[in-house]
Amino acid sequence: MPHAVHIHDSPPPQGVEPLVLRRVSSAFPTGVTIVSILTPDGEPCGLTVNSFTSVSLDPPLVSWSLKNTSPNLDHFDRAAAGIISILSQEQAELALRFASPLPDKFAGVAHSPCPRGAPIIDGSLAHLECSPWSRVEAGDHVLYIWRVEHARLNTLTAPLTFHAGGFRQLSA
Fold first, then answer.
1. Are the C-beta atoms of 72 and 47 separated by less than 8 Å?
2. How far is it, in rounded angstroms, from Cα 63 to Cα 49?
3. Distance CA 147, CA 126 (A)
4. Could you give the CA distance from residue 72 to residue 47 in angstroms, rounded to a whole number?
5. What is the tens place of the pLDDT at every residue in 107-119?
């Protein structure tokens, strides 16, 4: 019978080149979201995220990650509430906009505030209203775990997906 091996008793891993890991990871298709908050000054702040995943149903938890050199890191660390807008395949331009370094990504973008003020992207496939649960430093990223306070499916259109370095459409 095999015995349990504790991770700390194992020799250090050899590692993998970052570009190899990126290429292999790109073989896994992901959904595309915009994560948004209000800054302490009351300004909307958002960015494109494809690291979103469901973590737990009880309690209802989701996670996403942000590069630890992001200029928005402090805003997300201090946020009291946030929105995860799951994008439809018609919203690729929005995903590109929120992935760019534009100073005011919300200028001209249709959005509505949730009850706690964070902006919901109008026309999104679905959205989750969340509050911070946990923050974990993980290599060159910060992993945020948020508790889902409210979830809404807005439409039944196809989701925006990202695969092999580009947006893709799902085929039936």
1. yes
2. 11
3. 16
4. 9
5. 999 999 999 999 9
Identity of the residue numbered 162: F
Cα–Cα distances (Å) from 43 to 51, 117, 161, in that order, read 24, 10, 28
Beta carbons within 8 Å of 145's beta carbon, 6+ residues apart: 55, 61, 62, 63, 133, 134, 135, 136
Token pair listed for 35: 């994560």
| Of the listed ranges 6-10, 38-42, 74-78, 105-109, the one predicted with least confidence | 6-10
Question: Residue 66's pLDDT band (boundaries 50, 70, 90)?
Answer: very high
Claim: this prediction has a pTM higher than 0.90: no
How many residues are present in the chain? 172
Instruction: Identify the CA nearest to 87 among candidates 143, 145, 30, 142.
Output: 30
Q: Which two tokens stand for residue 157?
A: 């259109």
Q: How much is the pLDDT for 3?
A: 46
Q: Is 84 exposed, middle or buried (0-12, 13-18, 19+ CB in 10 A)?
A: buried
pLDDT at 13 over 80: no
> How far, in Å, CA of 168 to CA of 101, rounded?
23
46-54 own/partner pairs: CB under 8 Å, 24+ apart: 46/98, 46/105, 46/106, 46/119, 46/121, 47/72, 47/98, 47/99, 47/105, 48/95, 48/96, 48/98, 48/99, 49/84, 50/162, 51/141, 52/84, 52/86
